[in-house]
């Protein structure tokens, strides 16, 4: 039974991603954003369970990537497509450019499954981090404390973000993983610093902090080499 528990949680990730897609199609982007957060929580939990129960398997690895392709590949592309449709002055075909993120997410996941360098760290931005940035946009729009709506709905900002995230997904940039082998400061100082700063940003800026947190994650990884 324990061998199937991580896979069951992975399936919950996939189910949350499917529900997010349904809400995007219905125009409920804020609900979709919360479902993305739920999918990300399941994605984090299945890895923890697999390691804790020593239940890792090739099927689990493949299932995880298939689930991630929906929750963190198709979903961000659909959100960007929807936001670009709301932007004025664009040719009818241009909102489909949002799905460039979906294409590069597929490349990222395929690369991850076959790259032996990514056992204890990442090469390129993980798809959940990319999707959290995209999913934060509807939340910022819904609770626009800092008057960012005009910036977010600027089509060139959205297209620029699409290209930036797509590039980061496959970039040869080593990024640390949030995997704690123990709780000592010496072995996890970078992770602790990141988590403390991330919590502080969330308290002050709420949803608007999410893109900054991902930027912080990339920045800290570049300043200090990624390690397991």
From TrEMBL:
Q: How does it sit in the membrane?
A: Multi-pass membrane protein
Provide the primary localization. membrane
Q: Respond yes or no to whether keyword Metal-binding is given for this record.
A: no
The answer to whether keyword tRNA processing applies is no
Q: Give the InterPro entries listed for this entry.
A: CDP-alcohol_PTase-I, CDP-OH_P_trans, CDP-OH_PTrfase_TM_dom, CDP_ALCOHOL_P_TRANSF_CS
Give the UniProt subcellular location, in the record's own words.
Membrane
Ordered alphabetically, the record's keywords are:
Lipid biosynthesis, Lipid metabolism, Membrane, Phospholipid biosynthesis, Phospholipid metabolism, Transferase, Transmembrane, Transmembrane helix
**What would be one Pfam family of this protein?**
CDP-OH_P_transf
Spans through the membrane = 7-26, 93-110, 122-141, 153-178, 190-218
Indicate the family of this protein.
Belongs to the CDP-alcohol phosphatidyltransferase class-I family.
Q: What is this protein called?
A: CDP-alcohol phosphatidyltransferase family protein
* Organism of origin: Hymenobacter nitidus
């Amino acid at each position: 039974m324990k061998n199937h528990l991580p896979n069951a949680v992975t399936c919950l990730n996939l189910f949350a991603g499917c529900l997010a897609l349904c809400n995007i199609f219905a125009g409920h982007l804020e609900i979709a954003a919360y479902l993305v957060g739920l999918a990300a929580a399941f994605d984090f939990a299945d890895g923890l369970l697999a390691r804790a129960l020593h239940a890792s398997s090739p099927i689990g690895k493949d299932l995880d990537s298939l689930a991630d392709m929906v929750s963190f590949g198709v979903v961000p592309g659909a959100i960007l497509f929807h936001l670009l449709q709301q932007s004025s002055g664009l040719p009818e075909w241009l909102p489909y450019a949002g799905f460039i993120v979906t294409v590069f997410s597929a490349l990222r996941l395929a690369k991850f499954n076959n790259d032996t360098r990514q056992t204890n760290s990442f090469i390129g931005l993980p798809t959940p981090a990319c999707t959290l940035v995209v999913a934060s946009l509807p939340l910022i729009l819904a609770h626009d404390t800092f008057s960012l709506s005009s910036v977010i709905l600027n089509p060139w900002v959205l297209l620029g973000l699409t290209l930036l995230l797509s590039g980061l997904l496959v970039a040869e940039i080593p990024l640390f993983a949030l995997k704690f082998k123990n709780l000592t400061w010496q072995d996890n100082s970078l992770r602790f610093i990141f988590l403390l700063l991330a919590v502080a940003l969330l308290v002050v800026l709420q949803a608007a902090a999410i893109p900054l947190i991902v930027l912080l994650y990339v920045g800290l990884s570049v300043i200090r080499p990624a390690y397991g």
